[in-house]
Amino acid sequence: MPRIVVEVMPKPEILDPQGTAITHALGRLGFEGLGEVRQGKRFEVAVDAVDDATLARVREAAETLLSNPVIEDVVAVRAAD
Amino acid sequence: MPRIVVEVMPKPEILDPQGTAITHALGRLGFEGLGEVRQGKRFEVAVDAVDDATLARVREAAETLLSNPVIEDVVAVRAAD
Fold this sequence. Notes:
The structure is a homodimer of 81-residue chains. With 81 residues, the first copy, chain A, is an alpha+beta fold. Chain A contains 2 helices and 3 strands, in the order βαβαβ. β2 of chain A pairs antiparallel with β2 of chain B. Chains A, B: Pathway: Purine metabolism; IMP biosynthesis via de novo pathway; 5-amino-1-(5-phospho-D-ribosyl)imidazole from N(2)-formyl-N(1)-(5-phospho-D-ribosyl)glycinamide: step 1/2.
């Protein structure tokens, strides 16, 4: 089955303690020169076909169930590579 | 600062209880016709420049810190849109 990818990230103004912890860990592991890390979610949704109607339905599902609109943004809804 | 996106997904053979729970919830919420959902992680890493060396360093960080190679695959390391 083809798949649609949904990408969700915390809103920029929202504190991301997990991302901050990763940022510090990268420094401790010697990955110098890499800046701030932010962590979000990635979903793959199996669909019958990737068409505009299905993309719209997956976006609606993303905005109601796969993300919390108060603290997260749906940053991408696209056909899987 | 430019950013590099890292996308991590559970290996196909790995059970994804969270994804299964979401799949059932979508059905209950009336999103008919959407198939199996799998959930992974998405990171944004701020970098000084997006070049091959930095992409390679971020991929190395992804494979050592941002994912668990036993149960997860790094499916993409790319410049943010």
